[in-house]
Amino acid sequence: MARGKIQMRRIENATGRQVTFSKRRTGLLKKAYELSVLCDAEVAVIIFSQKGRLYKFSSNSEIRKTIDQYHRYTNDANMYHAKMERYILHLKQETMDMERKIELLEVPLRKLSGQCVESCSIDEIQQIGNQLERSLSSIRERKAQLFNDQIQQLQAKERFLKEENAKLLAKRYANPWQSTAHPRAAAIHSQSSRSTDVETGLFIGLPES
After folding, report:
1. Fewest CB atoms within 10 A around its CB: which of 3, 95, 133, 161?
2. CDD domains this protein is in (predicted)?
3. What does CATH list as the number for 14-59?
């Protein structure tokens, strides 16, 4: 016969409640003992009956040691959680402060770009205009400096090319025969070379027929 499901509520009958307490208390202490032996765990169980009677089990020789260890663990855990909560609150506060600073910095930038100027007074508009003029002046100065640097670089490159060209011309006129000789002089030099190549010889005896 299947066992019915027990409803989790207070047993109204005092005798039945006492019997159930006795059985389940014994079973709980037995399970605690088995857990400590099988798993080599430190286990402590404290039970107070309805009448205030104490029942306990401890795998340690003194249950007080287990209780002290529990207190140390909970204190450390509570301190850690409290520290983390303070740290999180600090980060949230820093984030909010940073957002406010960013907002304060973005307002002038938006005004300089022509946004959010509807609520500006005449003095603020004048200040924005002066700041824009100073910015444009700085930009023009930087632009002129960059152009001047570029012109100086081009001039230096031009001087370098002129010097190289002058060196090449000097080498060319220093050795004219190695570059371009006069065509007529070259032809005369060639004919003279061929005329000196005529074979001459002395033969003794009758000429061959």
Report:
1. 3
2. MADS_MEF2_like (cd00265)
3. 3.40.1810.10
